[in-house]
Each structure stands twice: as C-alpha cells, then as structure tokens.
Design brief:
By secondary structure, this protein is an alpha/beta fold. It has 19 helices and 14 strands. α6 runs antiparallel to α10, α9 runs antiparallel to α10 and α14 crosses α16. The structure holds adenosine-5'-triphosphate. Adenosine-5'-triphosphate binds next to α11.
Length: about 600
C-alpha cells in the first residue's frame, strides 16, 4: 500500500487510518467470534432434546435447556445489534477522518485523471466505502473464517457429513467464481455507462436554457438515453447471470440439506449416529454454507467497495500533506515569477506547455494589464499567480516567499481573485461577499461592496444583501454576478487583486465604475493584475504584458506597449500593432513586440 520512502504526510494519514481499521477489525472480530459460538446453541439444543430429553422423558431438563437456549439466543441478538451499531460508528469515523481531505481532493477532480472521468468523484467513493462498512456485507466477511470451524464440528459428528458438506462448499465456490466471471466485465461497463449518463444529465441540466432555445432537447435526450440504454443492457445481462447463479446456489444448498438429512438417517439406521445428530448436523452444515451463500449475494457490493477504496487510496495518497506552515508577515504585494512553465494536467508526452518559462516581477502597488489573443494562457497565468493552480516548474513568489510556503488561509485573506467564470456560492449575497465567513463584520461587507461599486446595485434588489443565490434563490444577471464577484475579491482589503476579464458583462456605466474601482485600488497601493481585452482598462495600468502562445511577447509601460493613446476605440476588434516597440523593463530581457491584438 504505502512504502518506506513515502512522504511523511502520506504515512501519517495512512497510520491514522490503519489504527482505525486495526481496532475495528479486532473489535468486530471478537463480536463475530462470540456470535458464531452462539450460533451453535440451536444445534446443541436439538442434540440434547432428541438424545437426552426424549429418551428420559424429563420435562425438567427440557425447561432448563430451553431457558439456557433462550438466554443464549437473546445474548446473540444483543451482540448482533452491537456489531451493527459498531460498524456504523466505524463508517462514521472513516467519514470524519477522511471527509475533509476527500472534499479537497474532489475540488481538484479535473486533475484526477481517467479514473475519475465520467461523473465519479472521491467523495462518492468515500460514500460507497462507508455504505459498505455500514452494510451486512462486512458481517459476511467476518463470518466467513468460521465456516471451517463448523466443518470441523461436522467431522467430529461424522466424516461422511463433513465430506458431503465440503463437496457442497466446493460447488458453491465454483458457482461464486463462475458468477464473477459472468457478471464482472458487464458490471464494470454498466457502472461506467451509468456514470457517463449522470454526468451528461448534470451538464445538460446546467445548460437547459441553451438546449431549449436551440431546439436541442430531443438530441440531448438521445445522447443521455444512449448511455442509459447501454448501462441498462449491460446491467440486464449481469443481473440475469446473477439471478441464474443465485437460483442455482439456492437449489444446491437445499439439495445439500436434503443429502445431509438423508445421509444422517442412513447413518442412524447403520447405528453410527443418534437421531439428534441428524438435526444438529443439518443445522451445522447450513451454518458452514451460509457465509459462502451470503458472499454470493454481497459479491457485487464488496467488489464495488474495493474498487472505490483503491481509487480513493490512490487519490488521497497524492494529496499534499496538511503541514503547519509558519505564519509569514502580511504581504506587501510584490510578485515575482521565476522560470514558471505549465503543462496541462494529463497532457500527452510531446504536448506544448501552456506557459513557457515565464520570468517577470511586479512591484507592490503596481497595476499591470495582461493582454493577448484567446488561448494565450492569460487565465492560466492568473490562476498560477493566486495559487489556484501549481506551476509544473518554477516558482511564483509573493514578497519573496514561494506560494507553496505560504499558509493558504493566511495568504488567501490578502488575495482578491475574480475568475473569468464568476462562480457564486449557494447562500445570500452578504455571505458571498464575505467569502462564506460566518463571523463577517457587516461594515466590512458593505465596504467591500462599495469599493467594487456594487453597494447600490445590491440595495436595489428586493432582499438587498440577504438576497439568496442558487437553486432555491434568485438568478442574477451576468453583470450583477460580476459586480458581486468583484465585491468578494475586495472583501478584507486584499493586498493583491487578480481580475480575469472583470468587464465581460459590464455595460458602459459598469465599465466606468470598474475603471474607478481600479483607480481606487491603485491609489490604495493594492497590487492589481487585470486580464482584459479593453484598451481603456489596459491603458489605465502602469504596465502592460502581452502574452501570446504561452510566451511574453512584450512587457513594459502601458504608454509604450499600447501604440495609440485612444486604443480603447478598437476594443474587441483588434488594435493595430506598434511595430518594433522596444520594451524596457528591469524584469525581462528587452523584447521587440511584433504586434499586439486585443481579442481573438
Ligand atoms: N486544464 C487544462 N487542460 C488542458 N488544456 C488547458 C487547460 N487549461 C487551459 N488549457 C489550454 O491552455 C490554453 C490557454 O488557456 P487560457 O484559458 O489560459 O487562455 P486565455 O489566454 O485566458 O484565453 P481567453 O482570452 O480566451 O480566456 C488554451 O488552449 C486552453 O485550452
């Protein structure tokens, strides 16, 4: 599972889990031992009744025996209940110990690779592992080792009965293996198709308006239906095979019981056994077979839980360890990017990096615009600058310290990030602005909204700051979302602002407001990085970086990089290039800009 040279975080996590599982295995093992011993009560009772009570006609012995048997069975029921409650607790502990790390792993699901394609997620895997621990499937696994004990008892009663049961067991094992061979592949494929269907359903539901507007509902239903139909056909095949094998195993068990009774009667006739032994051995034999039989029923669940656990273990082992990091002094906002390159996760060998060895510095309080055509890598660079993504190589430093050495909660307070696709969280606008901080100060929320020029806009909504967003709440316009996202970025007076196309949904007045916002941030000494296709916004910054094909083509004072002072007139259409602009900066080698275009 884990090896000697594994990182310490991985080992610590594993040892925590190991101790939970070790304890649970020991405890459930003890319960199972007692339960299986008590399962002998009925066979022993029958043996005593037929061989002792009936020949002696002693009612008193019958009463005593019955009272002891009833007590023992009540204890068995109690232990069975305790075992079930205990496994629920173990499941809750696993959930609790792994929940937060698994949640974090699920947030990065896009980078988890093929094993989590098609709608699977680490959180779903954790849920199925815990559901398995809660189920009877666990009891089956713990009862299985007692089957040989019952077999040995049968041997003591009579070897013929032992061999009969053993032959029955061998046949049952053959049935389990044949069953698995028949359903295994279809089961896996069916699960894969079901996951694809639910993924398609979620994506279609998210884009329901586009589907309706463009008359794509039927086509979408066909795409979804194809996955569902495939899953159903495969599931039907494996369920039919499973039903046949279940029926066969049931018939086999009953035949075996008959054979044990028949053989017992024959042995009694031969004088090798007593009548009581017939019934006792029949019960012991069925106890020996029961775990195997239950194993067939629970097989699918056990296999699914095992697959989920293997995936989960892999992804949790890859999660960076939560180590306590030294609290560094609050940052002034100076950024330095050294030899940063970035490859897409799961990129095929030979694929070009998205960003190719970038080197630059941004001083504290400076305002920089990043411009360039679509696909140049601007949003990727923004994500690297705020630490949302780790570079494949090189380092992003804030105040000289590598982003990886900052405590992300400490640094996060000082960073305001507005992603290109503004995602608001389920909750009120106030909660969204306050970054979900339950202790947020009202004045701080209002100040952030004011700084983002969003206060009036929010007050104009019927429920103002308490307006609920999300499935049960209000749908906001693109511009409203962007302004609230901007307010969230401003919350807590961050030292660094990274805004990825903050003006996409803004109208004229919204854009003027944004320019005022940026000017205010600049005046307040906040390091501001704006990705924009608008020349007017780029011109308002100290410097402009032109990114193309993952390479910095130009980086210098905005007046030099942007050829025309009235560049905003060409917004979105492309601005003529200043041929041969010489960019001088202390941060990068002198670059000649062959052409600058805004927009794609
Ligand atoms: N996780 C990823 N996996 C694969 N490719 C990616 C990933 N992230 C980005 N890319 C690719 O990297 C390139 C740069 O993307 P990015 O979003 O950074 O461009 P951009 O300059 O912001 O474009 P736009 O102006 O259109 O937003 C694109 O070709 C994109 O498809």
């Amino acid at each position: 599972m884990f090896r000697e040279n594994d990182p310490p975080g991985k080992r610590a996590r594993q040892s925590r889990l190991r101790s939970v599982f070790k304890r649970a295995i020991a405890d459930v093992g003890v319960f199972s031992l007692l339960i299986n011993i008590l399962l002998l009560v009925v066979p022993l009772y029958l043996l005593q009744v037929y061989d002792r009570v009936l020949p002696s006609s002693s009612a008193e012995t019958l009463v005593y025996l019955s009272a002891i048997a009833v007590l023992a069975l009540a204890f068995l029921g109690f232990l069975d209940a305790i075992r079930a409650v205990y496994t629920q607790r173990v499941a809750a502990t696993v959930d609790e110990k792994l929940g937060a790390t698994t949640f974090a792993a699920s947030l990065g699901a896009a980078a988890l690779g093929a094993q989590y394609a098609g709608g699977l997620s680490p959180l779903r895997d954790l849920a199925s592992v815990c559901a398995f621990i809660r189920s009877r499937g666990v009891a089956v696994l713990f009862d299985l080792p007692f089957a040989p004990v019952f077999l040995a008892l049968l041997y003591l009663i009579h070897p013929v009965l032992f061999w009969l049961t053993l032959a029955g067991m061998a046949l049952l094992v053959l049935l389990v293996v044949a069953n698995q061979l028949a359903i295994g592949r279809n089961d896996a494929l069916s699960a894969e198709r079901s996951a694809l269907a639910s993924h398609a359903e979620r994506v279609f539901a998210r884009n329901a308006e586009t589907l309706r507007a463009m008359g794509m509902v039927e086509s979408a239903a066909r795409v979804w239906g194809r996955h569902v139909a495939d899953a159903l056909v495969l599931h039907d095949r494996s369920a039919s095979a499973n039903a046949i094998f279940s029926g066969a195993s049931r018939a086999l068990r009953m035949m075996l019981q008959l054979a044990i009774l028949g053989a017992g009667a024959w042995l009694v006739i031969e004088g090798q056994m007593t009548a009581g032994m017939i019934f006792a051995s029949s019960l012991v034999s069925s106890r020996a077979l029961q775990p195997l039989d239950q194993l067939i029923g629970a097989w699918r669940q056990i296999v699914d839980a095992r697959r989920a656990w293997q995936r989960l273990e892999k992804v949790l082992a890859a999660q960076p360890a939560q180590q306590r990091k030294l609290a560094l002094p609050d940052p002034s906002g100076a950024i330095s990017v050294q030899d940063v390159f970035f490859m897409a996760p799961n990129a095929q060998p030979g694929t070009e990096p998205i960003l190719k060895r970038l080197n630059f510095q941004i001083g504290a309080g400076e305002a920089v615009a990043i411009v360039g055509p679509s696909g140049a890598g601007k949003s990727t660079l923004a994500r690297l600058l705020v630490g949302a993504t780790q570079p494949t190589g090189g380092a992003v430093r804030i105040d000289g310290a590598d982003l990886r050495s900052w405590d992300e909660n400490q640094l996060g307070i000082h960073i305001g990030y507005l992603a290109q696709d503004v995602g608001l969280f389920p909750g009120s606008i106030a909660e969204n602005v306050a970054r979900l901080d339950a202790q947020a100060d009202d004045a701080a929320i209002i100040e952030a909204a004011r700084r983002a020029e969003a206060h009036e806009l929010i007050l104009a909504l019927r429920d103002g700051y308490q307006t609920r967003i999300g499935p049960s709440g209000r749908t906001l316009s693109g511009g409203e979302r962007q302004r609230i996202g901007l307010a969230r970025a401003f919350y807590g007076n961050p030292r660094i602002l990274v805004l990825d196309e903050p003006n996409t949904h803004l109208d004229g007045s919204g854009e003027a407001a944004l320019e005022a916002v940026l000017a205010a941030a600049r005046a307040a000494g906040v390091t501001t990085i704006v990705i924009t296709h608008r020349p007017s916004i780029a011109a308002a910054c100290d410097r402009v970086m032109l990114l193309r094909g993952g390479v910095i083509e130009a980086f210098g004072p905005s007046s030099e990089v942007l050829r025309q002072p009235s560049a905003d007139k060409g917004a979105g259409k492309g601005v003529p290039a200043q041929q041969g602009t010489v960019v001088t900066g202390s941060f990068a080698p002198t670059i000649r800009a062959p052409g600058i275009r805004f927009g794609s």
